[in-house]
């Protein structure tokens, strides 16, 4: 059987230090030993190389054998009971006797392997009641505090009492994972670290990821010599994930970092809040120090206490802010805007508009007008910001406490406004509201130059060795916005948008009301003109006809005079017909005759008989089977009279006019995509026809396609037909070609619609 170690010997350099595989070091710390068992057979597949320091068996002696073969059935039974009763997932520890020695064992699963980490039992460890007393006292202190700062100070003090470390710090991360020593308990002779900041590179991303998985990390002696882990060499590239291991060996860069700080041992406990790494309890000792598993669990409990309180304490800190914000929101939300500028000027000066998010200034842009209060920017700068934020947020919303990050080339502008909240009020314009906060200069105390956290020298890659105080002035940054402030502005922006929409609707209604009044006046004037045209002008036309008729009766008139009088009489007659058609057209919309069920068969027969009786022309009118429709009898008779008259007027010379009136067999839709059905009545003739390109324009008023001298008429007939069909909620259309006759189609609704 071949055996090999799985030590990771990949060199760490500047290109891969942030991807250093710290979860698979292939080695452990020497204060315990490690065994890896296959899940199915409990075969010892991994073993650390220091077993002889704890038991009378080397790793070469036990690799490849089952756990029971090496340690006996009693130990095997204890392990199986521990695993099968789910104790492995609880806080209880497994105590075992292996080859005559007592051990405390932690067990977890890594892939297809059970990992057992065994440390010698310590007869002098603290009794459970002593640990309980510390925890109970801590709970008392916890309930007597209100602020997060006070709670963290108690956690630091309580953890130091339980563990005995020289220094315990509560380390809190910002949004970029830069750390701050938020609370501290230390030996009196040690310099304080409270308030110091550490760059995010001190704890790289892969280390933070492990802190999320494994909540407790112990280094008993930073000067330890790593112990390699061996395995049976039966698979190429074989390795073991030690992410959850207590004994896991540490990154050499981190060990060097601790050396540079003068630290001899550490304990780190993760503080998780809302599934993110909120911070750490970082314990430092300036000489080697190991803790029993029981004390580690007690220290871990301190971390659980603080994480359970983070949300509560942060909520308490924001409660007063939220209460004031909500009060301001309720007051400003009752302000009723109107369309005039004075209303907007009064609105922008309301103090509650600033109080809903504790802003120093606010601006509003509506329809190109800028309204502002407490804002240092000019109108042009406000418009520039609005245009930029509209494009940047795609007409939605945006907030920042450092505007300079978005506008790096406008530092002077960002010095006036370091932070802002923007909300769009219209998807199609730059209408918006913006709240502003000024710059708040602050001094950050770094533990060493943050830009030199990882350095490269002749010895290779190493962490910085200087932790001297490094001061940084943070400018162009405002106080951060609380979530309650962001929520309040979002809610109010929505409310304001509704008000602006209502103002817009009211303005449109007023505009349409004005236009409607103007239209009514214009219609009244037109009706008056029509009345004058159709009545007052009739009298002079009749006189012209009478006088011309008397003159034409005189004898011995010269031929040219007789010709002029004839033309005058004809023109007056045409003008009289035109005025009559205009009067008839304008009366259509005022027609109040009732709709009734009409039998088209009988009605059209009457119209046909009238036309035949009053005309000298020989004609052939054929009427098919026609349906009943709802309509106004007078108007429908006029409709068909106009159509028959039109067919006779435009008949071919030397041809007997033929007119065919029939109905479609079944109702039809006017357009392919319409659900409404109509009776379709067609009036077809054999007249001169017209070019199909004029099929729509012939229904326009005064439209004539033929020379007036050849064909009489005012051009009103088909316009009247269209008006009548509109009165019946129907349609009319024409199909024709020159010399081939014309077909007029009438679409009458099959249901009553008036």
TrEMBL record:
Residues 147-304 form the Phytochrome chromophore attachment site domain. Its EC number is 2.7.13.3. The keyword Kinase applies. Keywords: Chromophore, Kinase, Phosphoprotein, Photoreceptor protein, Receptor, Sensory transduction, Transferase. Signal peptide: none annotated. SMART domains: GAF, HATPase_c. Residues 532-752 form the Histidine kinase domain. PANTHER family: PAC DOMAIN-CONTAINING PROTEIN (PTHR43304:SF1), PHYTOCHROME-LIKE PROTEIN CPH1 (PTHR43304). This is histidine kinase. It comes from Algoriphagus aquimarinus. The lineage of its organism: Bacteria, Pseudomonadati, Bacteroidota, Cytophagia, Cytophagales.
């Amino acid at each position: 059987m071949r055996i090999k170690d799985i030590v990771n010997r990949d060199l760490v350099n500047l290109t891969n230090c942030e991807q250093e595989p710290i979860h698979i070091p292939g080695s452990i710390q020497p204060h315990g030993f490690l065994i890896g068992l296959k899940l199915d057979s409990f075969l010892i597949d991994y073993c650390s190389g220091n077993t002889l320091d704890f038991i009378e068996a080397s790793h070469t002696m036990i690799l490849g054998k089952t756990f029971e073969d090496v340690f006996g059935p009693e130990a095997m039974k204890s392990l199986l009971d521990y695993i099968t009763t789910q104790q492995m997932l609880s806080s209880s520890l497994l105590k075992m006797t292996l080859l005559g020695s007592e051990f405390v064992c932690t067990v977890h699963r890594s892939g297809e392997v059970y990992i057992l980490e065994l440390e010698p039992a310590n007869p002098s460890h603290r009794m459970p009641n002593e640990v309980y007393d510390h925890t109970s006292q801590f709970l008392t202190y916890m309930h007597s505090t209100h602020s997060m700062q006070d709670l963290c100070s108690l956690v630091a003090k309580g953890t130091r009492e339980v563990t005995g470390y020289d220094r315990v710090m509560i380390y809190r991360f910002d949004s970029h994972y830069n750390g701050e020593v938020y609370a501290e308990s230390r030996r009196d002779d040690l310099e304080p670290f409270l308030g110091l900041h550490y760059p995010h590179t001190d704890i790289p991303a892969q280390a933070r990821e492990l802190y999320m998985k494994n909540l407790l990390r112990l280094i008993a002696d930073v000067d330890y010599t790593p112990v390699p882990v061996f395995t049976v060499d039966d698979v190429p590239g074989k390795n073991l994930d030690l992410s959850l291991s207590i004994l896991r060996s540490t990154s050499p860069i981190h060990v060097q970092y601790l050396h540079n700080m003068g630290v001899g041992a550490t304990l780190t406990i993760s503080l998780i809040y809302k599934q993110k790494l909120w911070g750490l309890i970082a314990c430092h000792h300036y000489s080697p120090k190991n803790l029993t598993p029981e004390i580690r669990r007690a220290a871990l409990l301190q971390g659980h206490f603080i994480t359970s309180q983070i949300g509560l304490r942060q909520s308490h800190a924001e409660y007063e802010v939220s209460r004031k914000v909500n009060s301001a929101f309720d007051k400003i939300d009752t302000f009723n805007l109107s369309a005039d500028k004075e209303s907007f000027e009064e609105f922008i000066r309301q103090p509650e508009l600033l109080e809903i998010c504790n802003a120093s200034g606010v601006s509003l842009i509506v329809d190109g007008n800028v309204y502002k209060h407490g804002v240092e920017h000019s109108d042009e700068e406000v418009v520039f910001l609005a245009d930029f934020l509209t494009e940047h947020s795609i007409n939605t919303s945006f907030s920042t406490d450092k505007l300079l990050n978005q506008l790096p080339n406008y530092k002077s502008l960002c010095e006036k406004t370091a932070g802002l909240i923007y909300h769009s009020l219209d998807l199609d314009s730059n209408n918006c509201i913006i709240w502003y906060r000024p710059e708040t200069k602050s001094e950050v105390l770094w533990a060493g130059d943050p830009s030199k956290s990882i350095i490269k020298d002749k010895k290779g890659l190493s962490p910085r060795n200087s932790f001297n105080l490094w001061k940084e002035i943070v400018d162009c940054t405002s106080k951060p916005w609380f979530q309650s402030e962001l929520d309040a502005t979002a809610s109010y922006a929505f409310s304001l948008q509704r008000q602006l929409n209502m103002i817009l609707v009211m303005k449109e209604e007023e505009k349409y009301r004005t236009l409607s009044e103007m239209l009514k006046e214009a219609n009244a004037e037109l009706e008056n003109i029509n009345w004058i045209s159709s009545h007052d002008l009739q009298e002079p036309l009749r006189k012209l006809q009478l006088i011309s008729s008397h003159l034409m009766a005189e004898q011995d008139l010269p031929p040219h005079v007789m010709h002029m009088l004839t033309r005058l009489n004809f023109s007056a007659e045409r003008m009289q017909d035109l005025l009559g058609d205009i009067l008839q057209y304008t009366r259509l919309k005022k027609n109040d005759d009732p709709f009734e069920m009409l039998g088209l068969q009988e009605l059209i027969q009457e119209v046909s008989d009238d036309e035949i009786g009053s005309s000298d022309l020989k004609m052939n009118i054929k009427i098919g089977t026609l349906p009943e429709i709802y309509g106004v009898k007078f108007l429908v008779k006029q409709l068909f009279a106009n159509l028959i008259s039109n067919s006779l007027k435009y008949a071919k010379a030397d041809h007997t006019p033929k007119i065919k009136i029939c109905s479609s067999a079944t109702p039809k839709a006017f357009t392919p995509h319409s659900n409404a059905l109509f009776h379709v009545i067609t009036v077809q003739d054999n007249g001169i026809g017209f070019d199909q390109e004029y099929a729509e324009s012939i229904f326009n008023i005064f439209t004539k396609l033929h020379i007036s001298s050849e064909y009489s008429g005012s051009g009103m007939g088909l316009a009247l037909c269209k008006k009548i069909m509109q009165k019946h909620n129907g349609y009319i259309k024409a199909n024709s070609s020159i010399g081939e006759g014309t077909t007029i189609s009438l679409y009458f609704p099959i249901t009553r619609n008036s």
